[in-house]
């Protein structure tokens, strides 16, 4: 499934309606830009073709986005954490 | 009687005709956000909305616009629903005099009725989440009390912070969070991240109305929001120990999410339609991993629509912003009478004050811009005389019309700090600020011709009372002939 916002083609189904299941609605989400939408929303929210141009995102824009708040330096003597921040989460996949 | 949970407050709203229960099924989009937007336009007696049926949910309950009118704000403070805005702010400030009022821990919080752990958590099943504004990047939770402690001083109750931050749902048990740099939670997160540690967090959703008010109040770092809640209630705020994190959380909350803010992680977030009436997004922000959810049976999803002002958030933040500013100014300048900082969380503020000496009013105006909250807000400050009600905008416009001379009464401050969400700031977070002195000059500032102001006829106040009572009820037969 393609993300309407960043066009990543591995968007996932997160959940379905607790009552009635996928026939009623599904919620889908992109693991790269975190855009989420419900299958029953308007085309501007659910399809890449109709998604508004000014709200699209590219992998470059995601990587260039400033941190808020910035990750602070580690205190002296604190070991570097095992996993580097942001990796293994599909943020730049 | 103060309310110990959201349900008690909703019942009180219902008794006063300030709650609309909607039992017909509503589509998550666009019905819920549209109804909340519409409710905000119903004026000073706008009701809260309680949707009882949301498509796709067996028992989807959503409460909207709960604080979203002056009547509802008054009832939240246990005041008559007709109480005026100025009186509500004054009463809020008067009750603050009893701060700090210690909180009490109560056994048996109702949220322990149901528990979900780890991978069994699906936020979408617990809450009927939905999109608020069309271009939001996803579904948000924006009216929950987020609780954290200071990792450098974890036993300090006052440094434990309770605040409302926007939370973007990023999966079944994952939330993006915006901890603004000026907020206390950012200080907690920084201390944890410098040590390479996750920050334990509790997110309490669906609270008694005073919890939301104090979570929206700008307070000093060591001051406890719970102890302010006690002062506002006039009785201790009931708390419970969160089962996973041990954090102190509101006893009556509908849903309690516990977990950690993951150390040194930032992910793209937003956009989200903010209280400025504009979207903000495109920043990489921290993320909460939820490890445990506790919730009441058939929990109510209390949610807040915000967008082009005025919306519920302006009622929620309005008096809660005025009061600390009033108290901070008065601590140094007892001449200050009232502060109206209700416009976009105080980006525009109006102060009324007596003038001790020529130039005093502008000094008061400048001081407002250097209060802790004023650093990020108070971009336009209007100062008026003590007999001008800053909550009565026609009076303020009169003062600007006749007391204010743009040749001498404008103080412009370039390059001042402002919150980054202000879309006019340039670069982001930097703005000019301006103080407009619309007070009557006093010696030695001899300017203008202000000695000939018109005053009320004698007995005007008496007649106002009389006419008002006649207008509301039958007129006595001895009254004036038509
Ligand atoms: Zn995407």
Structure report:
The complex is a heterodimer of chains A (93) and B (482). Chain A has a domain at 12-62. In chain A, 11% of the residues lie in helices and 19% in strands. Chain A contains 2 helices and 3 strands, in the order βββαα. Chain A has a 3-stranded antiparallel beta sheet, with no helix packed on it. The two termini of chain A are 15 Å apart. Mean pLDDT of chain A is 90; it is low at 86-93. With 482 residues, chain B is an alpha+beta fold. Chain B is built from 12 helices and 25 strands. Chain B has helices at 6-15, 28-40, 70-76, 85-96, 123-126, 184-194, 209-215, 225-233, 312-332, 360-369, 393-402, 460-472; strands at residues 19-22, 48-51, 61-64, 104-105, 114-117, 140-141, 145-148, 161-163, 167-169, 174-177, 199-205, 238-241, 248-250, 255-261, 267-269, 272-273, 279-280, 283-285, 287-295, 300-303, 336-343, 348-353, 380-385, 410-417, 430-438. In chain B, strands 5, 6, 7, 8, 9, 10, 11, 14 and 19 form a 9-stranded antiparallel beta sheet that branches. In chain B, a hairpin with a 4-residue loop joins strand 21 and strand 22. Chains A and B meet through strand 1, strand 2 and strand 3 of A and helix 2, helix 6, strand 15 and strand 18 of B. The structure holds zinc ion. Chain B: Pfam families: UbiD, UbiD_C, UbiD_N. Chain B: Residues 10-90 form the 3-octaprenyl-4-hydroxybenzoate carboxy-lyase-like N-terminal domain.
């Amino acid at each position: 499934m393609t993300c309407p916002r960043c066009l990543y083609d591995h968007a996932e189904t997160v959940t379905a309606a607790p009552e009635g299941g996928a026939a009623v609605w599904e919620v889908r989400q992109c693991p790269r830009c975190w855009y989420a939408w419900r299958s029953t929303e308007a085309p501007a929210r659910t399809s890449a073709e109709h998604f508004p141009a000014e709200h699209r995102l590219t992998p470059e824009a995601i990587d260039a986005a400033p941190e808020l708040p910035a990750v602070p330096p580690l205190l002296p003597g604190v070991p570097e954490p095992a996993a580097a921040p942001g990796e293994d989460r599909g943020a730049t996949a | 009687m103060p309310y110990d949970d959201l349900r008690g407050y909703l019942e009180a709203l219902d008794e006063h005709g300030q709650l609309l229960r909607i039992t017909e099924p509503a589509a998550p989009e666009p019905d819920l956000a549209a109804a909340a937007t519409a409710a905000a336009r119903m004026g000073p007696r706008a009701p809260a909305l309680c949707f009882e049926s949301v498509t796709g949910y067996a028992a989807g309950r959503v409460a909207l616009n709960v604080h979203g009118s002056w009547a509802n704000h008054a009832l939240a403070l246990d005041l008559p629903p007709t109480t005026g805005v100025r009186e509500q702010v004054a009463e809020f400030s008067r009750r603050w005099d009893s701060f700090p009022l210690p909180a009490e821990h109560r056994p048996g919080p109702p949220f322990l009725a149901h528990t979900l752990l780890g991978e069994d958590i699906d936020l979408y099943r617990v809450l009927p989440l939905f999109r608020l504004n069309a271009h939001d990047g996803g579904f948000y939770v924006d009216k929950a009390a987020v609780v954290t402690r200071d990792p450098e001083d974890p036993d300090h109750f006052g440094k434990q912070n309770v605040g409302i931050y926007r939370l973007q749902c990023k999966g079944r048990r994952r939330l993006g969070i915006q901890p603004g740099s000026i907020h206390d939670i950012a200080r907690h997160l920084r201390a944890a991240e410098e040590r390479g540690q996750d920050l334990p967090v509790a997110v309490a959703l669906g609270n008694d109305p005073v919890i939301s008010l104090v979570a929206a109040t700008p307070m000093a770092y060591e001051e406890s929001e719970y102890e302010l809640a006690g002062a506002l209630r006039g009785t201790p705020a009931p708390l419970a120990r969160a089962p996973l994190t041990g954090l102190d959380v509101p006893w009556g909350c509908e849903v309690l999410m516990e977990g950690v803010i993951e150390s040194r992680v930032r992910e793209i977030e937003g956009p989200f339609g903010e209280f400025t009436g504009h979207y903000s997004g495109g920043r990489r922000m921290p993320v909460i991993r939820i490890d445990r959810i506790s919730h009441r049976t058939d929990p109510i999803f209390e949610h807040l629509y915000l967008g082009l002002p005025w919306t519920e958030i302006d009622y929620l933040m309005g008096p809660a912003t005025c009061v600390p500013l009033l108290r901070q100014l008065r601590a140094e300048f007892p001449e200050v009478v009232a502060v109206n900082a209700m416009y976009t969380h105080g980006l525009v503020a109006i102060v009324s004050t007596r003038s001790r000496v020529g130039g005093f009013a502008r000094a008061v105006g400048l001081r407002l811009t250097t209060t802790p909250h004023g650093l990020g807000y108070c971009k336009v400050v209007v100062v008026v005389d003590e007999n001008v009600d800053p909550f009565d905008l026609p009076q303020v416009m009169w003062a600007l019309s006749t007391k204010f001379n743009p040749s001498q009464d404008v103080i412009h401050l370039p390059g001042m700090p402002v919150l980054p969400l202000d879309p006019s700031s340039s670069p982001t977070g930097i703005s000019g600020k301006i103080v407009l002195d619309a007070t009557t000059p006093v010696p030695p500032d001899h300017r203008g011709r202000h000695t000939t102001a018109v005053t009320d006829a004698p007995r005007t106040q008496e007649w106002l009372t009389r006419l008002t009572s006649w207008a509301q009820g039958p007129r006595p037969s001895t009254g004036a002939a038509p």
